[in-house]
Amino acid sequence: MSAPAPRQPLPGPQPGWDQVERSAPYQDLRRRRRRFIAPMTVAYLGGYFGFLAIAGSAPGLLSGRVSGGLTTGFLAMAGVFAGVWSVVFSYLRASRRWDGQAGRVPGIADRAAAAAVAGDRRPEAGS
Amino acid sequence: MTGARGFAAVIFAVLLAVTVVLLLRASRRLASTSDFWAAGHAVSARQNGIAMSGDFLGATTMLGSVGLIMLFGFDGALHSLGWLVGFITVLFFVGERLRNVGRYTLADALALRLRERPVRVATAANSLLISTFLMVTQLIAGGVLLGALFGLRYWAGVLITAAGLLGYVLLGGMISVTWLQVAKALALLAITVVTAVWVLAKAGFDPGTLLARAAAASPAGNRYLQPGLYLTSTLNTISLGIALVFGVAGLPHLLMRFFTVPGQKAARESVGWAVAVIGAVYLCTIIIGVGARALLSPAQVTAAGKTGNNAAPTLVSQLGGGPGSWGGELFLALFIAVAFATVLAYVAGLVIAASSAVSHDVVARVIRQGELSDRQEIRIARLTTLVIAALGVGLAMALQAKNIVFLAGLVYAMAASTNFPVLVCALYWRRFSTAGAVAGIVTGAVSAIVLIVLSPGVWPGPRPPVSLANPAIISVPLAFLACALGSLLRPEAAASASFAQFNVRSATGIGAEEVAL
Fold it and tell me: Does the distance separating the beta carbons of B84 and A81 come in below 8 Å?
């Protein structure tokens, strides 16, 4: 496989990209991602720090016995494991839906993308 | 006893032989900087995800976390939970976007929007700091492990560890490190699962029974099963939580992993694999830690040291039939061999990140401004690797007596207060500027280090000026504030103007270096 071209920083305004950013397919992609990520972020950060806060300030809530030495705290911890796994895997599943959407963006952005990628390449690149 | 020791040596030899074959194969494929830093962007999502879990699971997990759980029960287990949660942060906000706009290092992505020189120098210095300190924790563990297995002096153990990792990095770069990480992560997963199942079997596969026995054996009694034994202040607990949840997304060697895959989708899926493996290993460490408390005699618990670092080796030797027995010595030898491979692979990943910061970001990009050929850059990389390893060995000799889990927690606070805020601002804030990035990194690093030095764990005197054990709750917001102030006070038209492109490219992968597999 050939060595990829190094990139240079891209100074100055890029009018083509502004249009892509405002285009309907890109905005739609952004909305879909956000609709998933925003509530999930509230859930995972809230869940984790809520758990820490309860452990710190109301340990009694986590000390109830379920069976033998198993406490509600250890059950809640198992819940955090299950929660992390389910958040990660539901993201992987959900992202398949918006991947198709991302595929539509380059169609609109063909020219801007081609120009920018060409602009990335230094003349001597591609050893 | 000697027979079992001989067996341990055989395991080591086999391990070494396998990795040497891997190395030779890898070194033949090493042709460009892209191969050296990013394994040619051609690692599959599954391999990379497992390697990512390997990058993450160090001796800290195998020895340190088990020890904490054995000593402090619920709180010990709570301690490592934040690391797992931190992967959601990586997945949602950092991983795939970074893959889309970066090349080999974090600074490559930032340099796309911001002025290259100051940004590269600041992030490189910071990455070097973080990686070197993490490396020290692992070198300490390597020295201790080899001492336990072969009766070597600590310094000899550290030197052998360093020699091993140099071999991997110098010859094969990221390709050989990736293979090593995959092999090590699978071995680690296997041995922790076997140990955990064995422990559960001793309690009739009933976690309730196991926990009850552990509480009965613990001097804390029922409090062993409740919060409050180790993390005594809510503020400290939350501060530690911030360091762990956001620190994962700021680790240079972990971020580098995203550049080894062909594209965005593979970057995302690697996190899935990593979370699956890491979660399984963490669940097992909880069982092993609680099991160590339930099954070991009080004398053995004392022998595991004040930090509990020796809890897991003591437990596996006990499970196998006790010290001196063939089964016990064999299981112990196996466990230590895997732990040593863990240390070696983990440090190799760190050294790659540290030397990429120096040779790719600073020497090749800032000093020589991209005029180096691939061959020259790799040569400089190998030279830097030597220097960094020497630095790590020196520090490991000096810091021998420090608790490695504690040190690791502080390193995560550093990562959460520097790379994480800058990365988030660069990816999501249109008005972010070079001044903001430099201010954020400097403020985050300085405030974290100052707070750490003044904290109870490090301050030499009896009355530390700061009672906060982990600085993250202060240093992370301070770093974000500095990013904001720097950007607002010194706005940068070019950085704002390039945001549209950066934003679209990071979200869609347009123009990214995609590699067809």
Answer: yes
Interfacial A residues in 40-99 facing B (CB < 8 Å)? 40-41, 44-45, 48-49, 52-53, 55-57, 59, 62-63, 66-71, 73-74, 77, 80-81, 84-85, 87-89, 91-92, 95, 99
Residue A43 lies inside a defined structural domain of this protein = yes
Q: Which chain B residues are Cβ-neighbours of A3 within 8 angstroms?
A: 32-34, 374
Distance CA A60, CA A63 (A): 5
Note the pTM of the prediction, 2 decimals: 0.87
> What's residue B6's pLDDT?
72
The parent domain of residue A82 ranges over: 17-118
CB contact under 8 Å between B208 and A122, yes or no, is no
Q: Which residue among B33, B42, B241 sits closest to A48, beta carbon to beta carbon?
A: B241
Domain membership flag for residue A127? no
- How many Cβ contacts (< 8 angstroms) between chains A and B? 195
Q: At what angle do helices B154-202 and B45-56 cross, to 10 degrees?
A: 110
Total structural domains in chain A? 1
Residue A108 counted as domain residue: yes
Which residues in chain B touch residue A91, judged by CB atoms under 8 angstroms apart? 91-92, 268
Quick one: tokens of B176? 């050989």
Residue A65: CB atoms within 10 A of its CB come to 14
The DSSP line for B350-395 is: HHHHHHIIIIIIIIIIIISTT---HHHHHHHHHHHHHHHHHHHHHH
CA distance A67 to A69: 6
Beta strands in B159-262 (DSSP E): none
ipTM: 0.88
Q: Does A4 fall in a domain?
A: no
Name the residue among B108, B233, B268 with its Cβ closest to that of A92.
B268
- Name which of B510, B514, B515, B517 to mutate to probe chain A: the one with the most chain A Cβ atoms within 10 A of its Cβ: B510
Q: Smallest CA–CA separation between B398 and chain A, in Å?
A: 35
The 10s digit of each residue's pLDDT in B2-45 is: 566 677 667 767 866 777 777 777 777 777 777 777 777 878 88
Distances (CA, A) of B405 to A56, B86, B466: 21, 17, 20
Q: Under DSSP, is residue A66 helix (H, G, I), strand (E, B) or coil?
A: strand
Per-residue pLDDT tens digits for B140-177: 888 877 776 677 788 888 888 888 878 777 776 787 78
DSSP B492: -
CA dist B32 → A4, B172, B382, B514 (Å): 10, 11, 13, 16
User: Could you say which of A67, A77, A116 has the minimum Cβ distance to residue B77?
Assistant: A77
